[in-house]
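Extended Data, panel c. Modelled sequence:
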Amino acid sequence: MSKSLTNQQAMRYNRHIVLPKVDLDGQEALLNANICIIGIGGLGTAAATSLCASGVGSLTLIDHDTVEATNLPRQTLFSEKDVGTNKVEAAKARLSAINSDCNITVMAEPFSAPGASQLSPALKQAIERADVVLDCTDNTDSRDLINLLCFKLNTPLVSGAAIRFEGQLFVAIPGESRCYACLRTLFESPDLSCVEAGIFSPVVNIVGTYQAMLAMQVLMDFDNIPKNTLMTFDALSHEWRNWKLPKGVDCELCAC
């Protein structure tokens, strides 16, 4: 059964509700939504913070790593006292303090199995239950697997990435747009990590927050979601650019 906003919640989210493209219906769509965030690093912590504060009813956080001191410059949901703590548990504690109405489920499991058949049933169910999945991981194997499951389970996917001074975003909605595999067919890139290449901390927070915005717009059925489009950000030139995927991409997954 769908939940309705309480009077207290309506007051809390008034600045959203007065927006004609949001209104009560849009805010209640957030209240009844379940968003799955895979990877609680720089992207995931920024996205989770924005989604939780904005009134999303349920979040599922998936990550098996622990907080390290080197995470703190960009993973701003964590503090020094969280070093050595599992990321999802530390994130849950902080997010619950931001918004106690948000139902937060945590899964301290790696999302890096070599194939969907080796993935735990619980992880598959987390994607199946989600209204939107945010891919905030940092390796191509995980990204490919997340895309495969989202396509098979008909779950919208918002993918983000950030390295050095650069960020990128891609939205895939099964049945409405091409999938992340189409993008990978056109834009193969080295599987570099932030440890190897470095990352300017504001960039990862910009991209993670943008992922949250796109997820909210998907949930509220905005009519201008950037489908079939790679969005890139360059912090050195201060430019956003949109790259339309051409027609006829030879994708074995979605046959687009």
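The chain has a mean pLDDT of 91. This feature is highlighted in the accompanying rendering.
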